[in-house]
Amino acid sequence: MTAKLSNPAVRVGIVALVALVIALSLAVPLRSFVRQSDDNAALAAEVAAKERSIAELQADVERWRDDAFVEEQARSRLNYVYPGETAYVVVDADGDTPGKLPTKAAAEQQSGSWYERFWTSVEQSR
């Protein structure tokens, strides 16, 4: 048996086999480490995005705590005025006010029932 181990080719084969076993035993933990590092980076980015979102929402809350901002929003969005003031609505050239939406009855009258619209779309697709 000593004669077989003294052969250089056998020694190289044994060393190669041991190196292969060591490499394979390290591959799985290394792959797990890389995957966990990627997951940690993704979670850190998600945490940073959530913190930015929280900061923006807190800034919104602070803005809404200001009475002047609330008053300005009520005047611009809801067209509120103080008693005694006169509110004017600007009308476009065609007579529609900006942001005026058709009523539900007018929309149903123009378009018909859902199954008529469906059948019309089927016929148009041919």
Give the secondary structure arrangement, pairings included.
Blueprint: H1 2-5, H2 8-65, H3 67-78, H4 104-111, H5 114-124
Distance between the termini: 86 Å
Written as H for each helix and E for each strand, in order along the chain, the element string is HHHHH
Biggest sheet layout: none
Helical segment count = 5
The poorly predicted ranges are: none
Which radius of gyration do the C-alpha atoms yield?
37 Å
Would you tell me the overall average pLDDT?
A: 85
The overall strand count is 0
**Percent in strands:** under 5%
The global form is: elongated
Number of domains: 1
Helix content: over 70%
Helix/sheet category: mainly alpha
3D architecture notes:
By secondary structure, this protein is an all-alpha fold. The chain has one domain. It has 5 helices and no strands. The longest helix is centred in the first third of the chain and has 58 residues, at 8-65. The protein is elongated and about 110 Å long. The model has no long low-confidence stretch (mean pLDDT 85).
Quick tags:
126 residues, mainly alpha, 5 helices, 74% helix, elongated
Provide a short characterization of the protein structure.
The protein is mainly alpha-helical. The protein has helices at residues 2-5, 8-65, 67-78, 104-111, 114-124.
